[in-house]
Structures are given as C-alpha cells and as structure tokens.
Inverse folding.
C-alpha cells in the first residue's frame, strides 16, 4: 500500500469519529431517524475501507476484522434505539473501536509502496531522467510510469498553437510508455513526480500542456522533483535558472555538481531576498541536491557498438578501402543561430563547403531539436532560409543529417566535436575526445 492510500483510509476513519460525535447528540435529542442514517453512513464507510484494504493487501488483513467488529457495534447501537439507549456508552464503544482500526491501519499495514511518475515532454531530453527511471523500475517498492506530455507552439498573440506529442514511438523498447490521457495525476496522486521542463508559461515560443505546470503538479503529489534537461560546461548556471517556476515549486532540484549547486543557491537566495519571500518556496540548502545528472550516466554508458546506423549513413562513413572515416559531430545551437542571423547562415555555408569535398572525414550535423520551432515562432522571417539550408544539405547527400531524439548515439560514434557552446559540450567532455568551438566570424577554411 502507498503512503497516500494509507492517509486516505485514516482520513475516512476521521469522518467516522466526527459522525460519532453527532450520533451522541442526536441520541440525547431522541432524533433516532437521524441516528439511523448516520449509523448506516458509518457502516458504508467501514465497508469501503475494508474493500480497499482487501483490494490492495489481499484477504486476511487484521484491520478488516476490526472493521467487521465496528459494523457489528454500529448494528447493536441501532437496535438499542428501540429501548432507552445509553448515548455515552454507544459513543465510547464506537470511539474505542475506531481507534483500534486507526492503530491497525498504521501498524499492521505496511505503507512501503511508491508510485513514481516521470513527465518528459521531448524525447530528445529523456536522457535527463532515464537513469533515475531505470533505477526506480528495478526497485520492487516502486510502481513506475513514464508519461510523455504534449507541448504546444505559441502563436504571435501568445495563445496555444500547434500541439506536438512525442509518445511511445520516440522511446526505446525498455521504456514503458503510458499515454498522457490514460494517467489521471489528480486522481492517483503519485508519491513522486519527476519533471525536466521548468518554464511553465514564461516563454514565447512553446509551452507544455498547462495541466502539467509545476504549480498544479505540486498540489497533486507528495514530492515534486525537478531535474534540469541540460548540464552546464562550467560551474555555474544563468541566474534565471534558479527561479523558474519548475524550480520554485519543486520540493527538490537535482543538479550535476556541488559547484553548480552553490550557484543555484546563491541565485535563489538573491531572488528570495529581492522579493521578500521569506523562503516561501523552501530553504535553498534543502531544495538543491548535488546527485549528478542522468545525462552523464547516459553518455558514459553509451558505446558505439550499441548502435546500428542506417545503411545510407554507413556508406558515408566507410572509405572505398573499407576503412572508417573520422566523424565530426557538428552541433548548432538554436539561439546562437537566431542571434547570429545572416552572419550565422554564412558560417554554416562555409562549414559545409569545407567538409563536402573531404574524403577522410564526414560531417554529422545535428541541429538543436527546437531550431525549426524557434525560427517558426520567434523569427518567421528567417524560417524559409533555414528550411532551404536543411533541404539543400540533405539533398546533396555528402553528410549525415540527424534530427532523431537520440543525441547520445552521435556522441558515442563520433570522433570529435565541432560547433556552438551548449550543454552538449559538457557531455562531450566525458568522452575525452577533441572539442572545438566554432567562431562565427571565421568564414574561411
């Protein structure tokens, strides 16, 4: 049984306590019709508690026997109404038996099961939660659900636009996916919810389904845990990361290192002081926990032999003599591109020109998964040029274009990194392979 379910049963026994107080008053007032109605209500509550226990724990639970005795006491109190009932005696009998039931719910039933729910919104960011999910799945005390949630592009007026949903087809077979429409968070009230989206309604390009905003989730679980979908190359985060809604409303925020934790704490405390919150969202030292990032777990555990490439990609990688070319992972970040505008397009074209005629290396281009979405919502004037750039690269066929959710395949198989600063750089460092950050100002080979 889960702790929340145990609490629900105890709450139901409290209603019997409350009804018992009223029963005494009605007996003293000789309002026997009202007494009978309350006795029936108490019996139904006891039966409901017993059915729930048998459903969750099986038959033979000691608590059920105590509930049966309570039903008998309630029946006898009802019969006593025909004579001259003793209200105090009836009150004590019911009260004492309800206390026995409460003690039995607390002591005889072990509330050691946890319902754990993971709410990713983009499959490409699932690696920020995966190792926690796999550990919970292996724990016999946990019932684990991965429930990908939909997200929306935002229109120019800020209203919800096109919906996107990345469901079971976007995840490996070892991840059991539950459809978001089939899991009722409010009704099930899970023990733990893990999220990796922190912005809620604070962005201009896209947002998750409003039903999954952190403020709402916090009301429908015992603990809300946020794990950032990114890691930082250095030892600190941007200040705003410490007071995004998903961070504020989370009970705990799991971060990649102690240095990064201290960065969160400093920013969070400044925000708390500036707005005179008196730590309404929790003490900084308790909220932020340095347990490492699951993204590192995924990079470290991913090996090139684990992946099978499409035949067309394999042909690009192999030389005519059978030797393998060097693979350069080319990562372009969406905001660097948006901010660079036409200058960045020129840089991209110069990179392509440099690599397209090389026989010893192959370029593996992996643009940030949200690049096209951001052009569409933030810079629609540049969207056509971006789409033409992608289409031309793909049609020429001399390099690999990777728009799949799995970033770790590219990290594992490639021989070196080239491109923009991003969290991918921090992950790539784990491989020990070379890294070069591109300079948009340099357009020649």
């Amino acid at each position: 049984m889960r702790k929340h379910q145990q609490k629900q049963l105890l709450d139901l026994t409290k209603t019997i306590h409350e009804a018992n107080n009223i029963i005494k008053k009605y007996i003293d007032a000789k309002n026997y019709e009202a007494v009978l109605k309350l006795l029936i209500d108490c019996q139904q509550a006891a039966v409901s508690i017993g059915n729930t226990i048998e459903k969750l724990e099986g038959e033979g639970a000691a608590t059920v026997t105590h509930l049966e005795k309570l039903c008998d006491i309630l029946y006898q109190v009802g019969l006593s109404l025909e004579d001259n009932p003793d209200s105090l005696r009836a009150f004590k009998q019911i009260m004492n038996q309800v206390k026995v039931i409460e003690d039995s719910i607390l002591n005889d039933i072990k509330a050691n099961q946890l319902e754990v729910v993971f709410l990713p919104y983009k499959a490409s960011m699932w690696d920020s939660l995966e190792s926690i999910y796999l550990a919970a799945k292996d724990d016999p005390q946990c019932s684990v659900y991965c429930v990908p949630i939909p997200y929306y592009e935002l229109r120019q007026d800020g209203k919800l636009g096109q919906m996107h949903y990345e469901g079971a087809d976007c995840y490996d077979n070892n991840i059991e996916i539950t459809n978001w429409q089939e899991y009722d968070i409010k009704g099930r009230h899970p023990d733990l919810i893990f999220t990796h989206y922190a912005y809620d309604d604070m962005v201009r390009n896209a947002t998750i389904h409003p039903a999954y905003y952190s403020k709402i989730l916090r009301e429908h679980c015992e603990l809300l845990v946020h794990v950032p979908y990114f890691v930082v190359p250095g030892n600190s985060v941007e200040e705003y990361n410490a007071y995004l809604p998903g961070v504020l409303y989370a009970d705990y925020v799991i971060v990649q290192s102690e240095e990064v934790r201290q960065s969160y704490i400093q920013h969070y405390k400044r925000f708390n002081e500036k707005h005179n919150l008196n730590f309404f969202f929790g003490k900084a030292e308790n909220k932020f926990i340095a347990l490492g990032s699951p993204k590192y777990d995924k990079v470290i555990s991913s090996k090139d032999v684990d992946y099978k490439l499409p035949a067309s990609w394999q042909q690009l990688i192999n030389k005519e003599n059978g030797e393998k070319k060097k693979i350069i992972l080319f990562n372009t970040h969406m905001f660097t591109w948006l901010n660079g505008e036409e200058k960045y397009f020129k840089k991209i074209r110069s990179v392509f020109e440099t690599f397209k005629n090389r026989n010893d290396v192959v370029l593996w281009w992996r643009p940030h998964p949200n690049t096209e979405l951001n052009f569409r919502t933030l810079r629609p004037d540049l969207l056509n040029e971006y789409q033409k750039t992608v289409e031309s690269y793909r049609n020429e066929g001399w390099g690999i274009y990777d728009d799949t959710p799995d970033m770790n395949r590219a990290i594992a198989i490639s021989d070196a990194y080239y491109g923009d600063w991003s969290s991918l750089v921090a992950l790539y460092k784990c491989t020990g392979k070379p890294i070069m950050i591109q300079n948009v100002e340099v357009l020649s080979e």
About this structure: The radius of gyration is 30 Å. The mean pLDDT is 94.
